[in-house]
Amino acid sequence: MKKKISTLIILIGTTISIYSQTDAIVFSGNTHSGCYNSSPVTSAPQRKWEFEMPAKNCSDPIIIGDKILVSAYDKENNRGYQFALDKNTGKQIWRNNIPEQLSTPTVTGDIALYGSKSNMTIALDLKTGNEIWRYTDISGMTCVAPAIINGRAYFGTHGKEWCIVDINTGGLIKKQTLEKGFCCFPSWDDKHVYFTDWAGNLHKQDIFSLTDTIIYRTGISSHVAPTIIGNTGIMTNDKGLLISVNLDTGKEIWRFKAGSGLWRSPSVKDSICIIITDHSHIYGIDIKNGNKIWEIKKEGTIYTSASITDDIAYISCGDKKMYAFGIYSGEEIWNIRLDDVAGQPFIENKTLYFTSGKKVYAYVSPPPHPVESEMVFVHGGTFRMGCTDEQGDDCFDWEKPVHQVTVSSFNIAKYPVTVAQFREFAVATDYVTEAERDSGNVFVEKKWEMKSDASWRNPYFTQTDNDPVVLISWNDAQHYIKWLNQVSGKNYRLATEAEWEYAARGGNKSKGYKYSGSNNIDDVAWYWGFNSGETTHPVGTKMPNELGIYDMSGQVWEWCGDYWGEYPDSPQQDPAGSVPHLARVNRGGSWFPRAKMCRVSSRGGYGQDARVSYIGFRVALPVHSQFNIAGNSNHNFCYHGEPVKSFNGIAWTHQIENKGAGISMVTRDMAFCSDSKGYLYAIDCKTGNLIWEFNAGSKLYDGPNIKDNTAYLGTANGTVFSIDLSTGKENWRIKTNGNVCFPPNLKDKLGYALSHDKKLYIFDLENGEIQDTIREDYVLCGTPKIEHDNIYYTDWGGNFHCIDLNSREKKWTLNTKEDTKQFTNPSISDSSAYFVYDSTLFAVNSKSGDLQWTFKSDGGLIRTPAIKDNLIVFTTTESHLYVLDITKREIVWDFRSEGVNWSRPIIVEDVVYFASGNNVIHALDLMTGNKYWEYKFVNETNVPINACSAPYYYNKALYIACGKTVYKIE
After folding, report:
1. Do the Cβ atoms of 435 and 442 come closer than 8 Å?
2. Nearest to 5 by CA among 30, 32, 26
3. Which whole number is the average pLDDT over 589-599?
4. CA nearest 233: which of 185, 265, 261?
């Protein structure tokens, strides 16, 4: 079932408001101009595609699902063009040649609304581009698209008219005449619409009665409506005034005088307001008091607003450059030079979309260089390793014999480790590579020489931050990986040679190519004699292979974990290489050797201290280490691994003494189950035998969180336990003054526990000593969420709190106005936080605390939702499981079961698992809702077993507790 949500999406460069026309999802009020919640572009982007328009006067693009909408106008021939483009390829989907200059549209459902410079407003069908209606009974231009509020289109005209029409028919609902003309996009909250006119009046109109009141007068022409922050509106005008007004009283709070005209809305994020003058001054203003924080001067006239994602502002300047600035410091992060002045960009998923001259561009963020690499999941499988038929006559003897190899699922980096990634490690640790300590082998004047000043910092050719790092020995790579594991809490390593070749061949999607991703080497590789130019190139600039992995042919030889050795002639299972040897394996070829060395079966071997300007590395990650055990509740129950898509039976069952609270954690081949009498059981995953049990002496609502070799447990009588994972013996305990329903969260050397005594306890993991407490006004319950150096938790007063992890000061509190107890933990995805009160799911900006939207379900939402990419999955007490697209804000599908759904869902790759109230575990396709399998739990006399817990996934198996029985499902 699909439930379509009719929603205004966006208008670039003006105040952005979002409002829903259904009770299912409500987008709360007014968000801020050009501020998008998406992955930021943190380094200079690279052109992905371009689309040439017939004329130059292009509107700013907006993205609706998989489409980009943009308009152009040929003034000389009076021809207008409206396009829908595919956002991934830039290819045209439809085109409409209405001979008008139209604005950037606003969109609701399948209708796109445009303003015009020819005294009309036009509605087009979003799917086809065909005209639906036009409204022409106006006496002046409507340069800006209408706003859509509660099923109505609101717009102003240069002819002193304020119009409200029906969005489906274009029929007039209300028209009023103003003191002076205007043409701006209004702002609104849940009760009022706000707009300005050219007499400098700020209007406040009741959404329901349509009664209009002037609440503030500047007497100076204002071209944009206020940006709304709570009950405050921030306005600009063409004389350079930025004014903050109380929208309840109409009283001015403060004003800031810029050097010249302000023609666009300010862009606001947290406490920062960014304004741009037509004389190219860019200001960062404190929205609390109007004080200037920073100022930048650029060249050329600027008529756009800033677009903000996370803490970065993107600004197009008159000097034909696009800039990225830090919003708090004003410091420039990067700039890119364009052929013409650009419009305001739209940012989505590390991609900038904008118009410049006659063209529409997509500029994509280059491959990332944060601490952790971007990983690709590789389904395990069996393949023939070595000199297979497609390798032809290019093979060497050491690629033989061809032998059968089976590898388990794993993750491998999409790109080799880059210069920027390695620099981050070197700076953080002061690490000195073996080449820096001695010398490195580089190619100089057509010959190889050992140079004392050669290193990854100086490979004797020019590199960018996104080139693969070179002159790295196997030993250097191990130091990098050790540090990476320390900072990430994961278990990265080098791939085995078998894993590397399996991934290079395309894994279970292999098409049998000679090179990694193609039979034409030029498609996929930088290599000697033809295209490398005797240097590396930015990663990801050639085609990927079948799995989406780049640069596995050519570019740099990559270290593997194995010792060099001859191949066996018998089948192998997860081989780890030869016996200890002087050499380690390299794979993939590089920019130096010719094509035959870049084949998927080609092998090389070097001493592990070798450092050459064509040797680098990429990292791998076992599937069961993709999530951090120390923060189980921190990971939204979305696991990476090979899902259980077919039911092969019950591997074992284990009976516990009392009725269970459920499987709460599975790791290190131990499944942990708690019961209602206060016992915690550790069960062997392989055999189902009991390893140890621990009596906490009080009811357990959930099992432990685990870090290193220790389990940490919360109990109903307010005790927090530290338990040795190997023996099940108590290390220490601390006592709070209230029920600690759920386990603490763990971060570095500290634990964080919520108690019914209204306190968040912060304690030392080693000895249990309480370091600090944070008190709230209501009962606290659950496991706090730790993300982005913040602590997030809810209380029983309907409040959602954000605390700075380091300073322990309150950043913000959101009051939901709900008066109900809350037992679930928040989930964090990108820059949004999701939490539940009663039957409502709330989406909140995790940085600012601003409410983004809500979803009202048919029953109680009592379990933490699971998140995967842009999908959020949750169950209700009225027997539903919903899958909601959090980008489009629409229900993708729902599933109806029997009985109350007490179980939280989990996601493994593309499969959703949950246990419904009729004691059935379901496996459903995440994208479609189609059923893979289901299994009903019954006892020996075929009577249904009561109260199944949520399932848990570990190492290709599911674990679940029903009644007094623990099950392992394969």
Report:
1. no
2. 26
3. 90
4. 265
Helix (H) or strand (E) holding 792: strand 790-794
Residue pointed to by tokens 């420039």 = 332
Alpha-carbon distance 110 to 124, whole Å? Answer: 8
State the Cα–Cα distance between residues 421 and 419, nearest whole angstrom: 6
- The sign one gets for the Cα dihedral 623, 628, 630, 633 is negative
Distance CA 501, CA 558 (A): 11
Residue position matching structure tokens 């990801």: 540
- At residue 819, the pLDDT reads 57
In angstroms, the Cα distances linking 668 to 402, 500, 684 are 35, 25, 9
Average pLDDT over residues 726-753: 90
Query: 358 to each of 72, 171, 264, 303, how far by Cα in Å?
Result: 8, 35, 22, 18
Dist. CA 111–CA 294, nearest whole Å: 41
Q: What pLDDT, on a 0 to 100 scale, did the predictor assign at position 93?
A: 95
Sign of CA dihedral 529, 531, 535, 540: negative
The contacts found for 635-638 with CB under 8 angstroms, 24 or more apart, are 636/827, 636/828, 636/829, 636/864, 636/865, 636/866, 636/867, 637/864, 637/866, 637/904, 637/905, 637/906, 637/907, 637/950, 638/866, 638/867, 638/868, 638/906, 638/907, 638/908
Distance CA(950)–CA(903), nearest Å, equals 5
> Which structure tokens are listed for 358?
């006659």
> How far is residue 671's CA from residue 928's CA, in Å, rounded to a whole number?
31
Structure tokens of 553? 């042919």
- 103, 72 in Cβ contact below 8 A? no
Q: How confident is the model at residue 940 (pLDDT cuts 50, 70, 90)?
A: low
- CA gap 172, 885 in Å, rounded: 34
Within 10 A of 805 (CB to CB), how many other CB atoms are there?
18
Tell whether the model's pLDDT for residue 582 goes beyond 90. no
Strands, E assignment, 569-678? 572-573, 583-587, 603-607, 615-616, 620-622, 638-639, 650-655, 660-667, 670-675
Categorize the per-residue pLDDT at 729 as very low, low, confident or very high, splitting at 50, 70 and 90: very high
At 765, which amino acid appears? L
CB 818 within 8 A of CB 840: yes
Identify the pLDDT of residue 621: 87
Q: Which pLDDT score, from 0 to 100, does residue 276 have?
A: 86
Rounded CA gap, 376 and 364, in Å? 19
Cα–Cα distance list, 161 to 150, 182, 208, 877 (Å) = 20, 8, 19, 50
Instruction: Report pLDDT for 126.
Output: 92
Q: Could you report the per-residue pLDDT of 623-641, keeping only the tens digit for each? A: 643 333 333 333 355 666 6
3-class SS string, 718-750: CEEEEEECCCCCEEEEEECCCCCCCCCEEECCE
Token pair of 582 as six digits: 């002087």
CA 395 to CA 389: how far, in whole Å?
10
Is the model more confident about 231 or about 874?
A: 231
Highest mean pLDDT, choosing among 219-228, 526-535, 674-683? 526-535
Q: Among 21-25, 33-37, 520-524, which range has the highest average pLDDT? A: 520-524
Half-sphere exposure for 323 (CA within 13 Å, toward CB): 22
Q: What's the rounded Cα separation, in Å, for the pair 632 and 384?
A: 38
Closest among 550, 521, 522 to 538, alpha carbons compared: 550
> Residue 748 corresponds to which amino acid?
D
* Alpha carbon distances (Å) from 26 to 9, 143, 164, 285, 593: 13, 28, 22, 30, 59
What does the pLDDT average to over 429-438?
Answer: 94
* Contact (Cβ atoms closer than 8 angstroms) between residue 510 and residue 383: yes
- pLDDT above 90 covers a percentage of the chain that reads 33
CB 294: neighbour CB atoms within 10 A? Answer: 17
What single string gives the DSSP state of each residue in 221-240?
Answer: ---SPPEEETTEEEEE-TTS
pTM passes above 0.85 = no
